[in-house]
Amino acid sequence: MSxxxxxxxxxxxxxxxxxGAAIGCVxxxxxxxxxxDEGHIQRFLDLRRPxxxxxxxxxxxxxxxxxxxxxxxxxxxxxxxxxxxxxSDARSADYPANAPYRPGHADYSYDAKYGFRDPRGGGRASAxxxxxxxAGGAVARLVIPEVIIAGRVVEIGGESDAERWxxxxxxxxxxGDSLGALVECVASGVPAGWGAPVYAKLxxxxxxxxxxxxxxxxxxxxxxxGAARLKGSENADAMRSGARFDSNHAGGIAGGISTxxxxxxxxxxxxTSSIRIAVPSIDASGQEVDAVTTGRHDPCxxxxxxxxxxxxxxxxxxxxxxxxxxxxxxx
Amino acid sequence: MSxxxxxxxxxxxxxxxxxGAAIGCVxxxxxxxxxxDEGHIQRFLDLRRPxxxxxxxxxxxxxxxxxxxxxxxxxxxxxxxxxxxxxSDARSADYPANAPYRPGHADYSYDAKYGFRDPRGGGRASAxxxxxxxAGGAVARLVIPEVIIAGRVVEIGGESDAERWxxxxxxxxxxGDSLGALVECVASGVPAGWGAPVYAKLxxxxxxxxxxxxxxxxxxxxxxxGAARLKGSENADAMRSGARFDSNHAGGIAGGISTxxxxxxxxxxxxTSSIRIAVPSIDASGQEVDAVTTGRHDPCxxxxxxxxxxxxxxxxxxxxxxxxxxxxxxx
Amino acid sequence: MSxxxxxxxxxxxxxxxxxGAAIGCVxxxxxxxxxxDEGHIQRFLDLRRPxxxxxxxxxxxxxxxxxxxxxxxxxxxxxxxxxxxxxSDARSADYPANAPYRPGHADYSYDAKYGFRDPRGGGRASAxxxxxxxAGGAVARLVIPEVIIAGRVVEIGGESDAERWxxxxxxxxxxGDSLGALVECVASGVPAGWGAPVYAKLxxxxxxxxxxxxxxxxxxxxxxxGAARLKGSENADAMRSGARFDSNHAGGIAGGISTxxxxxxxxxxxxTSSIRIAVPSIDASGQEVDAVTTGRHDPCxxxxxxxxxxxxxxxxxxxxxxxxxxxxxxx
Amino acid sequence: MSxxxxxxxxxxxxxxxxxGAAIGCVxxxxxxxxxxDEGHIQRFLDLRRPxxxxxxxxxxxxxxxxxxxxxxxxxxxxxxxxxxxxxSDARSADYPANAPYRPGHADYSYDAKYGFRDPRGGGRASAxxxxxxxAGGAVARLVIPEVIIAGRVVEIGGESDAERWxxxxxxxxxxGDSLGALVECVASGVPAGWGAPVYAKLxxxxxxxxxxxxxxxxxxxxxxxGAARLKGSENADAMRSGARFDSNHAGGIAGGISTxxxxxxxxxxxxTSSIRIAVPSIDASGQEVDAVTTGRHDPCxxxxxxxxxxxxxxxxxxxxxxxxxxxxxxx
Lengths: 331, 331, 331, 331
Description:
globular; 17 strands; homotetramer
């Protein structure tokens, strides 16, 4: 119910603004006795960290995570795991309080909801929040050692040939513009039987997990939109003795429950909303004024999206492992 | 947390199997004093009812809904509204207990999860469950009279020209095959400010709502997958004085919160899994055996999907209206 | 979150008014493969049924329960179990719409909350709702066959000598008055380790479960209020090899987690609020008018409270068994 | 669902062990625009802080709270409020890893649940966790400015004459023993209509809130256990024109919903379990060994309990204000 929490039994609650003192999360419901340390979490954080290349935001954040609770002598205790990252490089001066609503950002909608907001760097709506999803996902992975989760960018600016991406990004950056991206994530090793019918379907939870990531506008499982263009006979995944399947149009989920095949989802990231090209907008007083972003931003936010998608998939799968074990017993 | 419930404050819990005694739902958290009667709910049920044409299942169900609680003198009382539909035309003989796992259905995954299942007509995994979503959605609409929700099929079998659909469906039916479909749903009149940041984002909840519908494999908001192919400058929705927007690439949601523009989502339904064409499969004992569906089924389940998508959208929006009012006050 | 639902993983949702068409419940999250039929549930319902003696309400309700879903060939399927009891003997004429607010009842507070209410027989606030708790508890017991739950009235009208109760009740009934009661419930066989720290403590959940029963005003675990009058040295439960305890002041719970000792709770039921003695009150228009109850009511509602307390304890324990298994694994 | 979270719409999640790096909490769902700063929260923390007198633990903790998120320019933003207190004075050496299970503590039950635990100072089960409840309650109070919440110790060691308490405590301390206490809490100004029927009853939520506090073994609303000894005619709260009541046996709640009268609850704290008197126990290997507490502890943990009870009452009431507004509208 908590609107800043995610998950049923394994539950991630995040907090923190982009330019506040720190960001953090609480991971509740983690099984006890799992080996974990800061190094393990840090490795995943480093994958999404800004400042690591020309195609991601030059903001310099060490993003050093601290484990504040729930771990004793490098093992989870079963009590809530609190993680925190101090915000070391937050240049609030980049964000004047009375700035225009930046199109594509949550500026206007937050003001409409709450009456006002923390304007520094997108505040709570900043993609910085996703660092905590990655941290939570790093812990979730340890709950499901039987599963391998691999996400990767498969398309940038509509181009699937990765050799063309660098040129496209250079061009966008030079023009002060940005590009969208497609991320595909595959989870192998999920046994048949995880998930739940009707309203906590594995695919429904994955869809919420993915769509809740900043800048995501679409999600599909298996053949997804393509399945709507297939005939039933083409879309059928024939089965063979030993519960083997001839194909995986379903993307590893049937009726909301895993089939034992790899779970495949694809996620669309819109182009970064922060661009140096002026877009007509208004400010909080209703005055028309062009919005031009001058802060530091990724030319393609989707590039850093892959580890976030992986993390959300890990959280959903770990949660459903526990849910399944709770209701149906077993390992 | 309940795995057969949906929603935060306005909460739908459904129950019932396709060929059991009845199906039903409980709608909890509905505001008091709202005028409602069985006729109102029945009108929406009739829109998704089978047996109404050659392109939908010939199963004859009157689908007469009864209000069992929560309504007094045709007004909601604020207490749980229980609805029930008796299953009048359930031919269980169509479903032998030791049938092959039907590809695309939840047969195998349910068995993997629960060890056994109610095999009659898909049991809990039957699309019949969606009747209760439609009933719940009919009540939810009354909570948000300011919103108009309109869903429609926009593509069948990859064809967007509606004049071609009849021929395509005839052909599929004649061949014992089935077709997928695309449903678009637009919700107008949603004020700016509904939704919540991070993990109960309006779009995340809509994605879960849509992906949880039987046979749905993909969902997109606004430009969706198309947004991943736009540049930031193309995707930006410029704003004008009066909080008017020049475009609606965002589909009415920014940062998980409504912008006041129409909310637009598109949902992909896979082709009906029940087809008369044999598909290799196995039975519960692991024996290889062809699956051929002989029961009554829709050649294109997506056709009846539009009212279900509408209903889920209504449930999400009504829920978020109450959530917003709870946290931020106001009407 | 649902305000008419109870439990985390094993979740009971009830619906229905005292004088509506029916009452019912949905039990979600029940493990699959558990043998159950209507006879099993009926046996527990019969224990709390009115009309079975002079000290309980003469209302004649067969209270025949029907299983509508979630059970196939007398085994739970893991999908939601819907139960329903038709209201056969509801004399609405006993309850004029413009009656005075009955002191001790929810009449006034419901009107204050919802603006109006279903006045027939207490509507949703009627003790009749507890029939569904008993039905839910009957199912929950099957989830925890290792536990024996025994509730009993230990005090009526302040008198703990059971031989005196009949005379006290005769006297109260003759005078149109009513008596309170104390119910004690002991759950044996709960292994050490069920429960959860901090906000889903086993005792906190039991307290909510008990306090949520109609007419309950107090609950204590183990020595309860008595513990506040002991010294630490007197209250300590010494332990011996084999995890045996010398005493059970704690009532089987330490730090919110079961210790393996019997769980003991005591619950106070206020005297039935419906009495034939006039009490000054007001009606919905604010007019002063005496309230005199003429309908059929128990002289001591606590007598029928014992099976309800047992049921709620069963629901809490079964829920925590699943929660524990979900987080920590094992049987 | 989260087992370290509390509340429906206004939701407190706490984390941290007694002797870890820090303790903290996340308050989610708080309305925006409420004035708050660290000074406000600190004032309430100082009331429960140890080291402030001879009758409370001499542990010296400055308990300085930091607001890490959710507040901008001293106003709540509607996003999650994270609070943290560093643990400055944690003497882990007081707690050898292989210590005997301390009777009355959660040592044995935690080990039974999780297999092992953080033994330093009670870890997660330490009363130190309640600092974060107090901090959360301080924020919750701001959500309900119309309500005044006053808790106080009304009995120590069975003695209600406050002038005798000092001598009793001196005696207990001298003997290495401890005393229980009774805390009464009154919330005035709650309008009629807060609460919810059946499973989120105001009294049920208060009972869970109170029983979930460390060392609490009993809770009663209004006349509580005394009500079980009254006749219906004695227990009836007569009403007068203007919705005034002649008495308040009900403790301000009828049918789970507030009546507009002061809400009154009483909570029993057991004597501090940590005593210097040896009690037979076992260690983790099952070996019999006397438990003697040598660390720093309160002779009567109930004394510091009053601000914690107040805080939990504030959290429940603020939560129900938002829930009521969500479902029923209005202020």
